Structures are given as C-alpha cells and as structure tokens.
Amino acid sequence: MNISEARTRIVASADELYNARGIQAVGMDELRAAAGVSLKKLYQEFPSKGSIVMAVLERRHRSWAEGLDATVRQAPTPRARLLAIFDYLAQWFGEDSFRGCGFVNSFAELGAVSPDVADYARQHKESFQEYVGKLSEDAGAPPYLGPQLSILAEGAQTTAAIAGTVDAAVQARQAAEVLIDVALGHEVRGAA
Amino acid sequence: MNISEARTRIVASADELYNARGIQAVGMDELRAAAGVSLKKLYQEFPSKGSIVMAVLERRHRSWAEGLDATVRQAPTPRARLLAIFDYLAQWFGEDSFRGCGFVNSFAELGAVSPDVADYARQHKESFQEYVGKLSEDAGAPPYLGPQLSILAEGAQTTAAIAGTVDAAVQARQAAEVLIDVALGHEVRGAA
DNA sequence: GAGCGGAGAGAACGTTCGTTCTCTCTCGGT
DNA sequence: ACCGAGAGAGAACGAACGTTCTCTCCGCTC
C-alpha cells in the first residue's frame, strides 16, 4: 500500500468519525480500526492527534470550497450565483451525515485550548466571507451585502444542525433574495 | 454555608469555566477549587458531571432569556423591539467573556454523545425562535419573518464568536431592518 | 467530658486516552 | 537457505479523568 494512500484513508476516516461523534470522543484506537491501519503506521504518518485534526480541517476546507464553487458556477447570473450559496446549503443539510459546520464544531470543542484550531476556523470563515463578498461585488451590490449574506448562511448552518431540519436553508434563501434585491436597488414587495 | 448557596456557586463557577475553556477541558477538581467546595459536597449536590452540565444549561437559558427580554421591553414600538434583539447581541458580543453561544458550543461538544445536551440545546433554540416569532406577530409581520430574523441572530453569534469582533451584530441589525420593513410592506430603498 | 454525626481534605480506584515499546512474522537480496 | 529491515498487532506506560473512600477534626448532645 502506498504511503499517501494510508494518509488519505486516515484523514478520511478521521473526518467521518470526528464529524459524527466529536473530536474528543474518538480515540486513536478507534480511528486506527476505522482506517484499517496499524497504530504504528498512524504515528508514522502523523506525529500526534492534533496534527490529524489539522489535516481533517484542511480536508474539510478544500471539500467545502470546491463543492460550493461547483454549485455556484452552475448559476447563470450574478444574482443566481449569490442564491446558489443557499442551494448548496440545502443540499448539504439534507445529507445524513450533516451535523453542522465542522469548523464551528471544532472551534467549540478545541478553540479555547488549541490556537491552531481556532486560527484555522477563523481563516475558513474569513475565506468564505471573502468569497461571498466577491460574488456580491460581481453582482454590483454595495459592500455591506457580503457580510449580511455570510451571516445568513452561518445562521442557517447552526439552525439546521441543532433543529435537525433543512428548513433553515430555504428560509435563509428567501431572506437573501430580499437583501440582494434591496441592495441592488430593485423594487421589493413584501409578501403578506 | 447554606446548601443552595453551594449549589449556586458550583453552577456559577461551572458556567464560567465551561464557557471559557470548554466542558470537557474542565475537570471536577478544577471546578471544586473554583467553587471553593469540597469534592464530597460537590457530589452531594450533584450526582455526576453530566447533571452539573445540565444545571449550567438551565442557568444559561434563564440568564439569556431574561437579559434579552429586559432589553426588548425597553423598546417603544414592535419594530424597535425586533431590532432590540440585535442590540442585545451587540452588547453581549462586547463582553470579554463572550465565546459564542453556549448552547451551540455544548451541542458541538456533547450533542453527539449526550441526548440530554442535544435536546436541551434544541429546546433553547426553539424557545428563542418562538420568542422572535411572537415579536414578529406583534409587529403584524407575515409568519416567515420570525425564522428569518432568528437565522440572522444565530449567524451573528457564530460569526462574532469565531471572528472575535462585534461587527456581526450591527451587520445583522441592518439586514434585519431591511427584512422587517419589506415584510411589513414598507418601501425600502437600497443604499448604494 | 465522652461519644457521635457530619463536613473538609485529599488519597485512592478504575477507566480511558495519547503515545511508545516489544515481539513476531514476512519478504527480498545474496 | 539465511539474514536483516520493516511492518503489523497489541501490550505497556504515564497522565488525566470521574467517582468513591478514608481519615481527621469540629461541634453538638447526654
């Protein structure tokens, strides 16, 4: 077996287990079993559990950013691209494995004791906010729209995770529509 | 020393410590020291760490609900009362001890392994959503406004916690203004 | 004053965790 | 065929945790 094959499998298993049950609740032996790897090889690939956690965060960031961008790219107009963010959320929330944003969760679990985890979570959120800001700019919206939509997306994730329903994605999407149209100077009528 | 005095001090210390460093990172001995109580008395008041966690959640819920309601009551109109939610958030985010919503954090840490914690977090969020829904109804807004504002508030909390700034509260407040006015059928002009 | 109940301090226990060590087996080169 | 390097399985280790037990001391009752 290739060395990097083992790395990949370890990180993938860790991602799945940490997401499902929390980082601190999953021990190295359980991870070893799930990855089908010896404990020796585990510590040969990663010097510590902390480094596995960081590798998982990197994997999550790549996966999220790529998935989001793929969905957004399919939308034809700048306005549709902004709304596509919430379609991506809706699809994500519907997955059985969805248990909230992995960065929020790891920040809550380890942010206070691990500066690395806290910094990475911050970076991930900043990168998302920049992405949304760029999409907003492309749509010709004033700069306040980006943060507003980012906050909506963030709130939808937390709400969906704790309530256990997909509703938050469509509610956030409807709110986003209003905010976008107002920011673009369109006429908006409230539905009664 | 009165028995319920000890209980109160234990729960207050636990709240502070759990908030600052995470529940799993704080051991019973550290809590005992912070509360100024013997380990014996600790287990005399609470049968287990889990029961202390639940008591902390109850305390947090009461404190949050009372603080929010006090701020909201000061606002003169239904519209101002809806916006007061975000003033409350802004003040909260500015506190040194702010480290994100305690229910989101405990859900992230223990929700997957403790149904009690998960259920309580769900109840807390539901209760907040009902509260916002009631305020929306009082303002004469259509029923979709409540969830929209709840999601905004939720997102502001997470964003402020991870970014470490208060900005999210005022950004969410501005978005809320737009959503409220559109929902009430007012004319809204986008600022450019 | 003697004895007793309860409280505080902290040692002790059993478990779990992250990490390392040991033992055994296999496989490739001469 | 033999020897050495490397890998797998899992025992072992030290620390930390939640929880319980022990010991000592204080104040109250007869």
Automatic annotation (TrEMBL), chains A, B:
Recorded coiled-coil stretches: none
Molecular-function GO terms, alphabetical: DNA binding
Descriptive protein name: TetR family transcriptional regulator
Record's keyword terms, sorted: DNA-binding, Transcription, Transcription regulation
Domain HTH tetR-type intervals: 4-64
PANTHER family the record matches: HTH-TYPE TRANSCRIPTIONAL REGULATOR YJDC (PTHR47506:SF1), TRANSCRIPTIONAL REGULATORY PROTEIN (PTHR47506)
Domain of life per record: Bacteria
DNA bind region: 27-46
Classification via Gene3D superfamilies: Tetracycline Repressor, domain 2
Organism for this UniProt entry: Arthrobacter agilis
